[in-house]
TrEMBL record:
It comes from Copranaerobaculum intestinale. This is Catalase.
Length: 175
């Protein structure tokens, strides 16, 4: 029962944080719809089973089983994940450029995830450092990578409030 309530609380807190960040950026519909699939049976119950509280249960499930059905379900339904934008072309996997509103939602998702999992240890640099630590394993379109890297670096250097103003005034303007 502890894992059930812990997972439910974690995904709900995460969704709430992302929703509020999306609202601050002007992405109201995306904020409301963000990660609703986490409450579907395939995602929710695998999340409960592999819940640890300090990191995504998806990572633990992959360690145990070598894959995660919950993750396969999630990334195929949520356009703010770069993995959604991969195509199996004749000459290999091809990353497609993400539309800017989904890159901004990915930004909100990464900020909220570091806040949820790192708690008091979270700093303005946390999401940027997480991206840079795993960058070699990411198959993201170069323009998408450049934008998410720029936004997370702006948080590290200038703080979240300044970066959100930049997003509203420059990144999402006329989008």
């Amino acid at each position: 029962m502890r894992k059930f309530w812990g997972h439910l609380q974690t995904i709900t807190r995460h969704k709430w944080k992302v929703t509020m960040l999306c609202f601050r950026c002007g992405l109201y519909k995306q904020g409301l719809l963000h990660d609703l699939s986490k409450y579907s049976p395939v995602e929710f119950w695998s999340g409960v089973r592999y819940f640890q509280g300090n990191r995504s249960p998806i990572d633990r499930e992959k360690e145990v089983k070598g894959y995660s059905l919950g993750w396969l379900h999630h990334k195929g339904r949520n356009k703010h994940h770069w993995e959604y934008w991969l195509d199996n072309a004749y000459d290999g996997i091809k990353p497609l450029e993400m539309p800017i509103p989904y890159v901004v939602e990915m930004f909100c998702d990464r900020i909220a995830a570091t806040q949820i999992y790192l708690k008091q240890a979270c700093t303005d640099a946390s999401a940027y450092e997480y991206l840079m630590n795993g960058k070699s394993h990411v198959v993201m379109h170069e323009n998408t990578m450049a934008l998410i890297e720029e936004l997370l670096l702006r948080v590290k250097e200038n703080g979240l409030d300044v970066t959100i103003q930049f997003i509203r005034r420059n990144v999402l303007k006329n989008k």
